[in-house]
Amino acid sequence: MAKILVLHGPNLNLLGLREREVYGDGSLERINENLTQLGEKFHITMVFAQSNVEGEIINLLHDEGRTSDCVILNPAAYTHYSIAIRDAVKAIQTPVIEVHLSNIYAREEFRHHSVIAPVAAGQVSGFGHFGYEMAFFAALNMIKRR
């Protein structure tokens, strides 16, 4: 059975509580539940993790990411400056789909640049919680093509 790691970065544990006008009012648990249902429907094992700590995200990419068929990663604020996470994404050789709830290109200037995007298989940005489902179907397509 194929496996997808869904890795949520800093502050995403507060979804539904913070900046609802930007991130919506749904919780991280709701995103994970929706993806779990999709995983069951398509016979994909889903593994979820969230961390506010850069080193933990890197360790999860090294450990779980290398043994996954695809990774859905929302690096959150680390998107814009974490060369260490970028290097981990590149090193694991597992396709990584970068996801953002908001359209990072329509926000503050400092959010317009992703250091992750050049080493990711693709990016989904600006579709709210549905962006994770879009990333799931992109991952499913990549897994089936292999």
TrEMBL record:
<feature type="active site" description="Proton acceptor">
    <location>
        <position position="23"/>
    </location>
</feature>
<dbReference type="InterPro" id="IPR018509">
    <property type="entry name" value="DHquinase_II_CS"/>
</dbReference>
<comment type="pathway">
    <text>Metabolic intermediate biosynthesis; chorismate biosynthesis; chorismate from D-erythrose 4-phosphate and phosphoenolpyruvate: step 3/7.</text>
</comment>
<keyword id="KW-0057">Aromatic amino acid biosynthesis</keyword>
<feature type="site" description="Transition state stabilizer">
    <location>
        <position position="18"/>
    </location>
</feature>
<comment type="similarity">
    <text>Belongs to the type-II 3-dehydroquinase family.</text>
</comment>
<protein>
    <recommendedName>
        <fullName>3-dehydroquinate dehydratase</fullName>
        <ecNumber>4.2.1.10</ecNumber>
    </recommendedName>
</protein>
<dbReference type="GO" id="GO:0003855">
    <property type="term" value="F:3-dehydroquinate dehydratase activity"/>
</dbReference>
<dbReference type="InterPro" id="IPR036441">
    <property type="entry name" value="DHquinase_II_sf"/>
</dbReference>
<feature type="binding site">
    <location>
        <position position="87"/>
    </location>
    <ligand>
        <name>substrate</name>
    </ligand>
</feature>
<keyword id="KW-0028">Amino-acid biosynthesis</keyword>
<feature type="binding site">
    <location>
        <position position="74"/>
    </location>
    <ligand>
        <name>substrate</name>
    </ligand>
</feature>
<comment type="subunit">
    <text>Homododecamer.</text>
</comment>
<feature type="binding site">
    <location>
        <position position="111"/>
    </location>
    <ligand>
        <name>substrate</name>
    </ligand>
</feature>
<comment type="function">
    <text>Catalyzes a trans-dehydration via an enolate intermediate.</text>
</comment>
<dbReference type="InterPro" id="IPR001874">
    <property type="entry name" value="DHquinase_II"/>
</dbReference>
<feature type="binding site">
    <location>
        <begin position="101"/>
        <end position="102"/>
    </location>
    <ligand>
        <name>substrate</name>
    </ligand>
</feature>
<feature type="active site" description="Proton donor">
    <location>
        <position position="100"/>
    </location>
</feature>
<dbReference type="Pfam" id="PF01220">
    <property type="entry name" value="DHquinase_II"/>
</dbReference>
<feature type="binding site">
    <location>
        <position position="80"/>
    </location>
    <ligand>
        <name>substrate</name>
    </ligand>
</feature>
<keyword id="KW-0456">Lyase</keyword>
